[in-house]
Amino acid sequence: MHDSAVFGFGLFVCLAVVEVLKFLVRRKVLGSSDARKSLHILTGPIFLLVWPLFEPSSTTAHLWAALIPTLVTLQFALIGLGLWRDADTVKTMSRSGHRRELLGGPLQYGVVCTLATIFWFRSTIGIMSIIILCIGDGFADVLGRRFGHLLGGRVPWNAEKSIFGSVSFVMTSIIGSAVYCFAARSLGWTEDDESLLMIKIVCSCTLAGVIESLPSNGCDNITVFCTVIFTNKFLII
Questions:
Q1: % helix / strand / coil in the chain, to the nearest 5?
Q2: Of 7, 17, 66, 121, whose CB has the highest number of CB atoms within 10 Å?
Q3: What is the DSSP letter of 50?
Q4: 3-class SS of residue 15
Q5: Is the sign of the CA dihedral 188, 190, 196, 201 positive or negative?
Q6: pLDDT attached to residue 93
Q7: Cα(221)–Cα(29) distance, rounded to whole angstroms?
Q8: Is the dihedral of CA 17, 20, 22, 25 positive or negative?
Q9: What is the pLDDT along the chain (237 residues), one digit of tens a residue?
Q10: CA separation (Å) from 160 to 139, 148, 177, 216, 224?
């Protein structure tokens, strides 16, 4: 498939996920909280499944791919600024029901996916950045809210984070990253042997989990992303 066709297909799929979740919220099959976290968990991994479809020899594939999260993020930004009216998206994407909330976490989420694609397309760094952000952070919130009273309750340095949620962050990040990174290895996207790749995954996910548990004033999407980059670029040879 030509890169432009793959871009169109990928954009359609990502927007379709958003629309399906909005529909489920309207039909009261899902609550807005469950829909928001489902979108958080699903969008990135689905987006990564589009990466292999781009032309292997293309010098612009990463830019075509990056356009997908860029345009989705632009939509959210316009809605958050009040320039695009979409009450269903606001209800699905925000905790409070206020449109300006889309300029926080959802905007950061999109920026991270875009940057990871531009600079680390078809690399384990880009893959881990997106998987940890989506799966790790998503499941940490879902499982932390439900089982946060277990394993001793809250982390000592942040009353808003639970130990169970932080452990869930690390474990689900490791599982998700291992699945996608070893698939990438089979496609020839990395020359790392299995042991080194697993070390990178465990170190990245563990350090990201520690950083995510710290007080962040709503910037944990960015700090987690930076942690993955720092770990792979400077701490692991």
A1: 75, 5, 25
A2: 7
A3: T
A4: helix
A5: negative
A6: 77
A7: 28
A8: negative
A9: 689 999 999 999 999 999 999 899 888 888 888 888 888 899 999 999 999 999 999 999 999 999 999 999 999 899 989 888 888 888 777 777 788 888 888 889 999 999 999 999 999 999 999 999 999 988 988 888 888 777 777 889 888 889 999 999 999 999 999 999 999 999 999 989 999 999 999 999 999 999 999 987 778 889 999 999 999 988 765
A10: 15, 10, 26, 11, 17
Exposure b/e, 197-230, CB count within 10 A at least 16 = b: bbebbeebbbbbbebbbeebeeebbbebbebbbe
Alpha-carbon distances, residue 226 vs 25, 60, 113, 125, 211 (angstroms)? 33, 24, 12, 11, 10
Place of tokens 């001793």: 152
The amino acid occupying position 105 is G
Q: What is the pLDDT of residue 1?
A: 65
SS3 per residue for 170-215: HHHHHHHHHHHHHHHHHCCCCCCCHHHHHHHHHHHHHHHHHHHCCC
